[in-house]
User: Fold this.
Amino acid sequence: MTTTLLAPDMDTLKARLKATWMAGDYATFARYLEPGALQILAGWQIPPGSRLLDVGCGAGQIAIPAAQAGVHVTGLDIASNWIAHARQRAAAEGVAVQFDEGDAEQLPYPDASFDVVVSLIGAMFAPRPERVAAELIRVCRPGGRILMANWTPTGMVGQMFKAIGRHVPPPPGVPPAGLWGDEATVAERLGAGTRDLKLARRLYPSFAYPFAVPEVVDFFRRNYGPTQRAFAALDGAGQTALRQDLEQVFAAHNRSPNGVTVLEAEYLEVSAIRR
Assistant:
């Protein structure tokens, strides 16, 4: 069932979400995720010369490497500071990428502008998924590809957000982001506008930190916007309780016994062809 929010509530929510994602230091946070992101990008096999849109591009983790491989890349994100960092990084590396600040629910591009539309753990966090799905389809040319990687609700990141939600409840009326990692939901959202929809649960290729679980919680608290904002919303006792819950989640998914943290994080790989 779709829940509709009144426009003023949506404006307030969008401002809150933007502030959340701009908090912390995502460029630092993404450093440990980038090796896995590059493996996912390589698996997508995007041909040189393709027109690619990266929705929720963050600090350019896959947009810049794709451009270095000869792809014509546009990256879009809601967070102004991430876009600024991505532009600086692209300039420093001498690669041409168009980075735009914008909303996944209202992409500022004409119909059928791109050969490939991708989102690596990005578009799944927009509050109105039906609009996101429609926009991903709209800006992709007929016969083009739509590719996503979305955290599953039962995997480590889904459990992390569930733990955060017990202490800082999410906004009412917004579907859980983790539903983008549910096969039936994705099929419903993309099915009408796509064909050859393929869905596969996979483990994120590299999610490793050279320090122990308690330090991983500290790292998330400093650098990852949703975690930073959650801690900031709580008093001392609440922060202690949230820390304990996050340590439990990370410890349960840690596959290293050697004082470092190698997290097992499940995502849903989505591949479809625009009708």
Strands lie at 51-55, 72-77, 98-101, 114-120, 140-151, 194-203, 208-209, 261-262, 266-274. Confidence is low (pLDDT under 50) at residues 1-8. Residues 236-252 form the longest helix (17 residues). The CA atoms of residues 29 and 85 lie 13 Å apart.
